[in-house]
Amino acid sequence: MDADPKTSPMKPVFKGNFTQQEPIPEAGIAAALDVLRGGRLHRYNVAEGEAGEVALLEEEFAAFTGARYALAVASGGYAMSCALRALGVGPGDRVLSNGFTLAPVPGAIASVGAEPVFVEVTEDLTIDLDHLARLVGACGASVLLLSHMRGHVCDMDRLLAICDAAGVRVVEDCAHTMGAAWNGLPSGRHGVMAAYSTQTYKHMNSGEGGFVTSDDPALMARAIMLSGSYMLYARHRAAPPPDAFEQVKWVTPNVSGRMDNLRAAILRPQLADLPRQVDRWNALYRTVEQGLRNTPGLKIIERREGESIVGSSIQFLLPAFSEPQITTVLEGCAARGVELKWFGCAEPVAFTSRYDSWRYTDAQSLPETDRILAGLIDMRLPLTFSVGDAGLIGRIIREEVSAVALDG
């Protein structure tokens, strides 16, 4: 939607909705209706000679990412915990992860009885590789659950060098980087396994859902058994050969988390259209980014050379602003229709919890992360916005931040 007319010459107001997604494509609606009419929603309830929507989606997602194997599951959180279980992570194990991420990441670690060990974040909002290099040899973790939080990708070449030298296996959380890449290699192709999300606010929308990908046949065989395949793994089209299951099928518990044919039917047309959607998100992102440049008191988070992004959200820093100043910016933008989230708030608000909010984990001190999150502002960019909307949003934020900076 384009912005509404200005309410006054000095104070334009944006009237869009920051949580409104685009409709499901007509092709997805038609495919979903076919599934409903047939009544075979369960992924293994297929007719003779029929692959089923989930199996076809897995095959298409593997091709999209370049992975050998793909498994469609019930959520992105389940995808992460499934990957950890497939790697043998269990009670009492320590798992490295970003200090700046969202609650499902440490939640996946806790769900298998393991303990998160948080790594500092840099002002680029990526994992601090110097801190990681110090931790890997000292904390006893053998797995890093790497969150590409808000779509920011670190120097993956250096990260892998650090982890490989220490014998640490990497699982990539690609909830915010489906369609992104590092030096041309798609996100999720660097670690031994990757997890993706198709929750409503991610890059494809099935309400809830996700994927696990890997090139390792043993790991993927365990993931498929974990997901609840029973002995029907031969019905998967993006899976290892049957002999990969011969041993794991006896010793792998069923922790059911399958995707169903209805959600897969909705997702297949979205996957086919994802490259075009990525271009649309990036146009919105660059428009807001340009509108914020050279704003007094505001620091743009510059994207790295070699990083191909999906700009479905944008972040910026107010590094020298006090808590009252940030609150004034948030309130001023909200009054003009722009919904910002602040990761520096002492109390969790909606999804913006942080590592010191997760009190089921051991207390840890991350002073650099604390400093950065204190001034970190976050905003969604749904595809229901136009480039004109993005321009107006950037202007409103710029005006509100500038006013507080000048008053301060």
Write up what this structure looks like:
This protein has 408 residues and is of the alpha/beta class. 37% of the residues lie in helices and 13% in strands. It has two domains: 26-268, Type I PLP-dependent aspartate aminotransferase-like (Major domain) (Aspartate Aminotransferase, domain 2, 3-Layer(aba) Sandwich); 274-407, Aspartate Aminotransferase, domain 1 (Alpha-Beta Complex).
DSSP E strands, number: 14
The assigned structural class equals: alpha/beta
CA-CA gap between termini: 35 Å
- Name the helicity range: 25-40%
Output the CATH homologous superfamily of the largest domain. Answer: Type I PLP-dependent aspartate aminotransferase-like (Major domain)
Largest sheet entry: 7 strands, mixed
Short structural summary:
The chain is an alpha/beta fold and 408 residues long.
Key terms for this structure?
single chain; Aspartate Aminotransferase, domain 2; globular; Aspartate Aminotransferase, domain 1
Q: How do the strands and helices of this protein lay out in sequence?
A:
Blueprint lengths: L25 H13 L14 H13 L3 E5 L2 H11 L7 E5 L5 H8 L3 E5 L9 H8 L6 E5 L8 H11 L2 E5 L7 E2 L2 E2 L6 E5 L12 E5 L2 H11 L20 H4 L9 H32 L6 E2 L6 E2 L4 E5 L5 H13 L5 E2 L24 H7 L2 E5 L6 H21 L1
Parallel strand pairs: 2-3, 2-4, 4-5, 5-8
Antiparallel strand pairs: 1-9, 6-7, 6-11, 8-9, 10-12, 12-14, 13-14
Helix pairs in contact: 1-9, 2-9, 3-4, 3-7, 5-6, 9-12, 10-12
